[in-house]
Design brief:
- The protein is built from twelve helices and 20 strands.
- By secondary structure, the chain is of the alpha+beta class.
- A hairpin with a 5-residue loop joins strand 14 and strand 15.
- The longest helix is centred in the last third of the chain and has 18 residues.
Length: about 425
């Protein structure tokens, strides 16, 4: 691909409900931004980007040239008119991941040098089938998580305003606000509705946390990765190296409720676990394939179990899919979210932004997981009550009272025992 790996975003679908974006959104700049005085030029700029880069060369079976003529024949007196027209134009693609952001909305996706966010801490998208606003996942240890929101929750009202027909940008503008203020979300879950009053706050994000835990077969390294941000790979490397020094016998990598992030981050982390093999392939609309492979510098070859669930999306699915297809890890939990598309996030001339779906990605075996997700090797569903308990008290995640972790530990102990006993391994297979 012409676009650099650092310009590829695997979580652009997930809008972070904060006034400042999660670190490492992966903006692919077109050069120095300059103000375009003509709103019509902005409309044409967006059209040109879609025409060159959009993954579907049929543009959702629409005549894209005619679309250009239609929108450039209009008179635009102010930028807001252009913004409205652009969103209308992009709606013809019927792609919730390709979206326009006005300058204020675009600021919410830019890197904050302090590494601090202001918001409630959820990531949302418009469901491709139902068009309903859906929670991809709450960010760990944020107001949304503590309130009890979970992946797949449907936002039906925001401060009493019905979200039917509302796009993601509109929802973001309603949910965002100053720290200390509150927003009321009406959530639908299992056909039941419930109101959540959530106070906005300043949020510090740390993508990796880890611990050494004792087990019957020896020490276990537990690593929880909650986002593929720009510094996630460095933190993952430090965690593995420290746990290797402590001579753990195996690892549990927790990707539950991890909504994704940067492509290069998922590739770098996969290389820490995989000594050989393909990690992921991306294919653009011309059919050009870009393959990412192991660099033969894995940090460990010890047994590995990966925890996934319905909130594990995009970059999480690349990593878990690579480990599963290469027989490097056993996946435990529930089916993943199912997002196999890549976005490029670009700055436009007047300071606004555009997220464009530019490619599809496939696991090493060639699986297209978009909308279907990855099915774990060992399935274990949690009840909503169990999910809420873990989200409200993060200290319970990755402990014996976490049912999925307990199952992962049991599987890992079997894997460790099998590796120590070649005969037991041959019998198991």
């Amino acid at each position: 691909m012409v676009i650099t790996k650092r310009g590829l975003v695997l979580g652009a679908t997930a809008v972070v409900l904060t006034t400042v974006a999660i670190t490492g959104v992966g903006i692919h700049s077109q050069g120095q931004a300059f103000f375009r005085e003509s709103p019509k030029e902005l409309v044409d700029e967006v059209w040109q980007i879609i025409d060159r880069q959009y993954v579907d060369g049929t543009f959702n079976q629409s005549d894209w040239q005619t679309v250009r003529k239609q929108y450039l024949s209009r008179a635009y007196t102010k930028q807001e008119d252009a913004y409205k027209a652009i969103r209308e134009m992009l709606g013809k693609l019927d792609d919730p991941y390709t979206r326009f952001m006005d300058p204020e909305e675009f600021k919410s996706l830019q890197v904050d040098t302090s590494g601090e966010l202001i918001g409630i801490g959820i990531q949302i998208a418009q469901d491709e089938k139902t068009k309903k606003l859906t929670v991809i996942s709450p960010i760990e240890d944020t107001p949304a998580a503590k309130a009890g929101l979970i992946a797949k929750d449907i936002i039906v009202k925001i401060d009493g305003k019905d979200t039917k027909g509302m796009d993601v940008n509109q929802a973001v503008s309603l949910i965002r606000g100053q720290p200390g203020t509150s927003v009321r979300l009406t959530i639908e879950r299992n056909s039941r509705q419930k109101d959540y009053q959530i106070k906005r706050a300043r949020i510090e994000l740390h993508p990796v946390r880890y611990s050494y835990q004792k087990a019957p077969t020896g020490g276990v390294g537990y690593i929880r990765l909650n986002q593929f941000s720009a510094n996630a790979a460095a933190e993952m490397r430090d965690a593995i190296k420290d746990l290797e020094k402590k001579q753990v016998a195996g690892y549990i990598l927790d990707l539950r409720s991890n909504p994704g992030g940067l492509l290069f981050s998922s590739v770098e982390i996969a290389q820490m676990w995989l000594n050989d093999g393909t990690i992921v392939s991306t294919v653009d609309r011309q059919g050009k394939k870009d393959i990412e492979k192991s660099d033969h510098h894995a940090l460990t070859n010890k047994p590995l179990v990966v925890l996934v669930d319905g909130g594990s999306a995009s970059a999480s699915e690349i990593l878990s899919g690579a480990l599963q297809d290469n027989d490097r890890a056993v996946l435990v939990g529930t089916k993943t979210f199912g997002k196999g598309l890549v976005q490029s996030v670009q700055r436009l001339g007047d300071g606004s932004g555009l997220a464009v779906t530019i490619a599809k990605y496939f696991t090493p075996s060639g699986r297209d997981i978009n909308k279907s997700g990855i099915v774990p090797d060992v399935r274990l569903e949690l009840s909503d009550t169990q999910k809420e308990a873990l989200i409200r008290d993060r200290t319970k995640i990755g402990t014996s009272v976490d049912p999925q972790y307990a199952k992962a530990l049991a599987v890992l102990n079997q894997e460790i025992a099998s590796k120590r006993s070649p005969r037991a391994e041959s019998l198991r297979r």
